[in-house]
Structure formats: C-alpha cells, structure tokens
Amino acid sequence: MSETPRVLLVGAGAVGQVFGKYLQAAGCELSFLVKEKYADEARRGFTLYELGMLEKDLEPVVFSGFGVHVSNEEVAARRWDQVWLCVSSTALRAGSWVGELARATGDATWVMLQPSLDDRDWLLQWIPAERLVSGMIPFISFHAPLKPGERFPKPGTAFWMPPMTKGPFSGPSERLPRVIRTLRAGGYPARASQDVARDVAIPSAVLTVFVNGLEAAGWSFERFLQHDSLERVHRAAREAVQVAASHTKGSASAVLPLLRPALFKLMLPIAARLTPFDLETYLKVHFTKVGEQTRLMMKTYVDLGRRAGLPVEHLLPAH
Ligand SMILES: NC(=O)c1ccc[n+]([C@@H]2O[C@H](COP(=O)([O-])OP(=O)(O)OC[C@H]3O[C@@H](n4cnc5c(N)ncnc54)[C@H](OP(=O)(O)O)[C@@H]3O)[C@@H](O)[C@H]2O)c1
Fold this sequence. Notes:
By secondary structure, the chain is of the alpha/beta class.
C-alpha cells in the first residue's frame, strides 16, 4: 500500500464529487471512473459550492487535478488502494460491471455508500468482507441551481454538511482506520461505527417510505401533510421499520411509539426551515433522479418482510 492512497471513485455525480474533494484535500491520488458520456465534462473539472447556514454570496470552487477513466482496461493498468462506490443501489445491479471492476482492482479496499437494505449482502458476492468498508452519506448535494433565479453565479454542484454531522463508517479493523484517517486528513467529519448498516437501517426505512409518499403527493409538502396521505405513510413506515430492524437484528421498540402522523407534521416544516436551500425542490429533483432506487428499496422491504413473516400490506404499491 502506498503512502499516498490511490483512490478510484466510481461515479462523478453529486456524491462522488463531494467525496472526491475531501479525498483530494487529504492528498490522495484521485481518479474517477465515469461513463463515456460524462468523460469530457469530468476532464474539464467541476465547480463546487459549499453551503453554510448563513445566506451569503457563494464562491464557486474549481475541483480538478484528478484522473478520469472510462473502462475497466484503463483501471486495470494501475494499482488502487481504495475503490469508492458513488452510484445508486440500482446502478450497482445494472450489468456485470461490479464483478469485472473487482477483478481489475486487485486487493483494494472497497467503500460502499448505498442505502438499500441488502446492498452489502449483494456486494459480498464480489468483495470479501475483509476488504469491504460501509459508509453512510450525511451531506446533501445536488446540481445547482435547483431552480431558476437561485444565487449561484454559474452551474455546479452544491453541497451542505449539516452542522455537527459525523459520517459513520464501519468495516474490518485492518482497513477501516485508514479510510477514516484519510477522510479526516481532508477535513471530512468521519467517525467509526460498529455497524453502519444497522445504524442507518431504521432512519433509511422511514426516509424511503416518506419519499415514496411524497412522490405519491406530487412532491408537494402541502398535499403530503394531508390526513389520508400521512396515515398511509405512517402505516407503511411502521412496517418498513420492523423489516429493517428484523433484517439487521436490531430493535424497533424505541422508534415505533414515535412514528405517528404528528411526527411528520412537526418535523417537515422544521427541516424545511433549517436547510439552506429549497428542501421541497431538492427532494423532488433528487428522488426523481434516483426514483428507481426508491422503488427497489420499497420492493426489498416487501420481499424481506414476507420472508420474515412480517406485515407488509401498506408497503405494497397502490393499484
Ligand atoms: N446527492 C445526495 O444528496 C445524496 C445524499 C445521500 C445519499 N445519496 C445517495 O448516493 C448515491 C449517488 O447519488 P448521487 O446524487 O451522487 O447521484 P448522481 O448525481 O446521479 O451520480 C451518480 C453518477 O454515477 C454514474 N454511474 C452509474 N453507474 C455507473 C458506473 N457503472 N460507472 C460509472 N459511473 C456510473 C451515474 O450516471 P447516470 O447519470 O447515467 O445514471 C451518475 O453520473 C445514491 O444512492 C443516492 O441515493 C445521495
């Protein structure tokens, strides 16, 4: 393993660019593996905006100075210490590229960030547990502007790290410390966790059902907060939380009493007020982009719930 970690980020979208910025700041030798259609844009470099809590003029920051690859052959010609998967859960399963990339990247540590309940099990087909680190994405990033008239001097990727946030990572003791050390050296607030999959399973279940309900309400907070919509979402969220707890051998007992329609009524306006961007528009834009992933995750709750003999009737798609 080299002193300067050689890092390959798969996917140079909203998330890949942000992790790339921190890893480059840590001194990593950085490359992206992108689809051919994005290669020119990536080679020109990206424009980043870091959002704070205060509304002030935004300074675009140029993010460049990394390699750009478009094929496994190019990747296989180099040695890698870390491979970061910055794509959706559905992109992981599209074709056979993950297995091929695993063969092209030798003994590298793989860092997965995907949210679906069975992503880790799925990846273990190709990457042994001794080399697989799991992380959760605590920031929000998006292509800016989200809508016309916003305060960005030119198009780019905006990101917001909520105050006091720590991004959890878990994995084998021989690999995890180096990933965390590297991120911290770049100024990223990383922390070690016993089991990220378990930490995030329940919040992710609530978020997924919420997003599914918001989509059914036409991405409108006002319509989402109406009685019938809230009732449906709260029942489905209870089922998803129980599936998530059962699958990760965790407990839902502390969360279930809190899961009430009133919780969404209370939290949504607070969240909208705290975010330094238009939350309603972000949710619509982002979760339309990863809509297939939300459907995959909903189906996964149903499949795993049925297998475990748990109720799933409110998680089923409406006909
Ligand atoms: N952005 C956020 O605020 C945020 C927050 C928390 C979690 N996440 C999660 O992070 C994941 C990525 O989100 P994102 O916002 O970064 O999405 P994104 O902006 O769409 O970026 C993903 C990029 O990876 C590309 N890609 C897909 N398969 C690839 C492959 N085999 N090789 C190389 N590139 C590939 C995609 O291409 P195409 O455009 O052709 O699909 C896209 O350019 C999702 O699971 C999302 O739910 C995102």
